[in-house]
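Provenance

Sequences were taken from public entries as deposited. Structures were produced by running a predictor on each sequence independently, with no templates supplied. The record for Annexin from Sinanodonta woodiana is shown for reference.
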Amino acid sequence: MVSYFDGELNDGLKKVAFALCTPPAEYDAMNLMKAVKGIGTNEKVLIEIICTRTNQQIKDFKAAYKELYGKELETDVAGDTSGHFKRLLVSLLQANRDESKEFDRNKAKQDAQALYEAGEKKWGTDESRFNAILVSRSYAQLRATFQEYAKLANKDIDDTIQSEMSGDLRDSMLAIVRCIRSKASYFAAQLYKSVKCMVTDNDTVCRVIVSQCEVDMVKIKEEFQRNYKQTLGTFITAYVSDDYRMMLLALIREEAAVKK
Ligand SMILES: [Ca+2]
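Predicted structure for Annexin:
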């Protein structure tokens, strides 16, 4: 039991050390490659990376993927996924999201109506309508759309997605919606879930902390505290062991604040 745990810790430490030495776009490309290579697919990783990055980050990890592996990421992702989930990921990989900060209230009302008719009002679901709106509109526009949607449907878009979609398509759409509401809150939840399972998901903890520690960690820590009523530092101290814990705490700049 002890030796198994030791092995897992060393493995975690090695992963973090390697990740820290890798440029962000390459690190994303490597994680995406690991997610599609061989038999089976790690859809969770595809969702966490492809549904959360900006247009520029997507362009950069696609270029890194081509450089590292000599092939197109879209082709590999499309080959490993299917149906509307595949279409959603491939569309996101085009990196064509409107990234302006403005929104148009009338357009938000129209899109809210379109989403309502494609889901709640329809026998079955028009998934492509959801895809088209969630993939192309700006975050600001979609925030307004979700407000209009809640007024119109008397429920949140998240609840509609939960009941109208299933499997990876549902999970990817929920990831997009949660990122639009707050990327920091989305990543805080990823950390919480990956530590609070039977065996700590070190890969996810490492991916999230390393990729976000220089980007949004202050906000992620705030969201973590707000949503889970404890600091991220306390949480990591309680659930992650020894060497690996110290490294993670250093990365989130909590080393001084936490005593076991
Ligand atoms: Ca329906």
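The CA atoms of residues 57 and 162 lie 28 Å apart.
The mean pLDDT is 92.
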